[in-house]
Amino acid sequence: MPRLARRAGPHTVKTPDHAAHVLGATGPIGQQVLQQALAAGHRVTVLVRDPARLQQRDEKRVTVVIGDAASAADVEEATRGSQALICALGAGKDYKSTLASRTAGPVLEAMAAAGVERLVWLSALGSGDTARRQSLFQATASKLVMGTLMADKGIADETIARSDRDWTIALPVLFGNGLTTADYLTIPLDGIQGRVGGRINRSDVADFLLSAATSDLWVRRRVILTR
Fold first, then answer.
1. Distance between CA 151 and CA 97 in Å, rounded?
2. Domains plus CATH for the chain?
3. Would you say residue 207 has pLDDT above 50?
4. Closest Cα to residue 214, out of 174, 168, 163, 147?
């Protein structure tokens, strides 16, 4: 299975000062994306409801826009001028959340209006029909505990995949905590067959999201992430 190589230096970027936009920057994975982006020298615009929750709100290379990710107008304002949009929104422990399906349409509308092509979308292995690639244990657990949430994520994934944007959909397995290793598996959803289990550090998921957003890798592909 293809493995993302361990990097010896910073992320490859399209320009020396790559401009990206992050949705979900106050969440656990969005925070990791923002920290890694700043460490790599990027400028970042974030859309947040409550700036007080953003640790980096006073950082010079962070532009904060107050708004709602389900509002196309708010997302367009924050996205205009960016080279890529990373959507790292999460529902936390709300297993009945419809956040993914409520934001997918507005995000695509905003990107088209702002002229932004590149979208990296955080979903989860188990969303929609991707449960067929989960380990039996994780598939059963997801269905019992997060059935509504995973169904909603599947709707959002299909909306993104039908769009004309240069999208990548990330499908991580169960999350773990730990340092960024840059040593994890990237498996095309419809590539090598078989079920996938395990865990992946949130920091490594963020590493993938940022790497994809600042390159032409995995365009119009759904990618399973695991260790």
1. 10
2. 17-226 (3.40.50.720)
3. yes
4. 168
